[in-house]
Amino acid sequence: MKDDDQRAAPDLSCPPWVLREYAVLADGERGAVLDPRGRIVWLCAPRWHDDAVFSALIGGAGHFTVEPADPWHVWGGYYEEGTLIRVSRWVTSGCVVECREALAMPARTDRLVLLRRMRVERGETRLRLDLDPRPGFGDVRMRDPRQEDDGVWTAGAGGLRMRFAGAPQTVWRDGAGLCGEFRLGEGEIHDLVLELGTGREAGPLDADALWRATEREWRRAVPDCSRLVAPRDARHAYAVLRGLTSVSGGMVAATTSLPERANSGRNYDYRYAWLRDQCYAGLAVAAHGPHPLVDDAVRFVAERVLEDGDKVRPAYTVDGQPVGGERSLRLPGYPGGTDHVGNDAGAQFQLDTFGEALQLFAAAAAHDRLTGDAERAAAVAVDVVERRWQAPDAGLWELEDRWWTHSRLSVVCGLRRMAEVLPGKPGRRCAELAGTVLAETRRRCLSADGRWRRAADDDGPEAALLVPMARGCAFGDDDGAATRAYVESRLAEDGYLYRFEHPGVPLGEAEGAFLLCGFTMALATHRVGDRGGAFRWFERTRAACGPSGLFAEEYDVRQRQLRGNLPQAFVHALLLECAVRLAGESTLS
């Protein structure tokens, strides 16, 4: 980490907001973070794992602002249902303005197109525009700016080429990029189209055609959820998962470098595809039906397992490459956080990843979607489990290597599910190995009162133990009821659930409530037949989002604030699974 006096000064033209106020645009290949004032403050190009061109979120240079010139205004906004098309809404003393914004779809890996369409509902307005792309996390300024005869601006730097349409009256200022203002009267519409890419140009920047294609792609991508619990939120969760999933099949976990706890060093780069998270999403979608995101998850996970075997990494870039180790940029970071990119978890061994992968492959088989590659990957995963199930691993929470109970129960669940779908000898092998792993795990990790211990050497409560129960796996321990009750008695507070205890520190002070755990508790409670309790957990956890409906990893209950990276994919996945299973609509057991 760089010393404070080595860090660049933050860009004060884009001051930070609490996380709940941000929205996100995504097209599967990259994501943009949007603040309520109309500033896009984070965007990597051309793909998730590439350097940012807008870095203001973590104190760097680069942003794209469209906002009322009148500072006396309030803001709001919403997503169009079943999409990540965002409509920002600003109200001044004399007008109401909406700005519809999206990353254009279908997306290309080498090129992004960002659409912004302003419309004045009432009155007239003057809007301010600032566009300052800075490749290399703000280190590089665009060069050779030029306005073409059709009014389109072009420039380039850092291997990226820019085209920008819709702002012929703007001027390029050295050190500030494009700047200008424009006026709109009541009922008027104005389009801005920004293209950034490394590949060839894709023809005219026709806003109408790009909007039609984007709307059509979202209609095709997100299924009907009207029969589910909380149908609008369920469709929104599905849209988030689709927006985070690349054409490669890889689904990124979230954004980057947003703190879980102020000045604690706990902020991480999540612009990568975690295999476990991908399995959670695939299983949630499979519970609803054989939708394309199931195939995406199966394909990406199978490719990684076949390629790397027992050297499978927890996380990859969306194109299947290893994740680099953590490094610090010379930026201030989001307040209370730092500016880390890369992730050291990419080198860990996490046994439960193989258990979740086996469960995913079994779910695919139940929908007749198990490909030949996936079946071969399942065999490789079983081989890895057979060789390494007794070795300590980093576990779900990516901590120190220990004999974590959850990891063993996860592989038992996965092996059992595969035994149900594989015929003959392969199925019998899975069943026998599941019995072997479970017998030793019971010997080492089951307490005398019938509940599971956190680890072989730790008798404490652990919310991760709810995951196998949520999946419907029973281990002869009263279907997990004792474990669920113990976790609730020790880790629940004010209707929210925490991961585990931090010795000597009250719940809520060491970290926020973990929203994945809250939704998992809802599923586990439903499994033991307490439907009312399940709905209480679901509704309480569902309330822990920002105005945009996006969930972060954690929730600060006392301050009612989001903590950690936004949006967190696996939280949206578990919301979707709850919406399916609590409605009695699951297509899986």
Keywords:
alpha+beta, eight-stranded antiparallel beta sheet, 13 helices, disordered N terminus, 589 residues, 32% helix
Architecture blueprint of SSEs:
Blueprint: E1 23-26, E2 31-34, E3 39-44, E4 52-54, E5 63-68, E6 73-79, E7 86-92, E8 96-103, E9 111-122, E10 125-132, E11 143-147, E12 153-157, E13 160-165, E14 171-173, E15 177-184, E16 189-197, H1 207-221, H2 231-243, E17 273-274, H3 275-288, H4 292-308, E18 315-316, E19 327-328, E20 340-341, H5 351-366, H6 372-388, H7 405-421, H8 424-445, H9 466-470, H10 481-491, E21 492-493, E22 496-497, E23 513-514, H11 515-527, H12 531-542, E24 554-556, E25 561-563, H13 569-582
Antiparallel strand pairs: 1-2, 2-3, 3-4, 3-5, 5-10, 6-7, 7-8, 8-9, 9-16, 10-15, 11-12, 12-13, 13-16, 14-15, 17-18, 19-20, 21-22, 23-24, 24-25
Report a brief summary of the structure:
This protein is of the alpha+beta class and 589 residues long.
Please tell me about this protein's structure.
This protein has helices spanning 207-221, 231-243, 275-288, 292-308, 351-366, 372-388, 405-421, 424-445, 466-470, 481-491, 515-527, 531-542, 569-582; strands spanning 23-26, 31-34, 39-44, 52-54, 63-68, 73-79, 86-92, 96-103, 111-122, 125-132, 143-147, 153-157, 160-165, 171-173, 177-184, 189-197, 273-274, 315-316, 327-328, 340-341, 492-493, 496-497, 513-514, 554-556, 561-563. The model is unreliable at 1-5 (pLDDT under 50). It is of the alpha+beta class and 589 residues long. Helix 5 packs parallel to helix 7. It has 13 helices and 25 strands. Strands 1, 2, 3, 4, 5, 10, 14 and 15 form an eight-stranded antiparallel β-sheet that branches. The protein has an eight-stranded antiparallel β-sheet with strand order 6-7-8-9-16-13-12-11, covered by helices on one side. A three-stranded antiparallel β-sheet has the order 23-24-25.
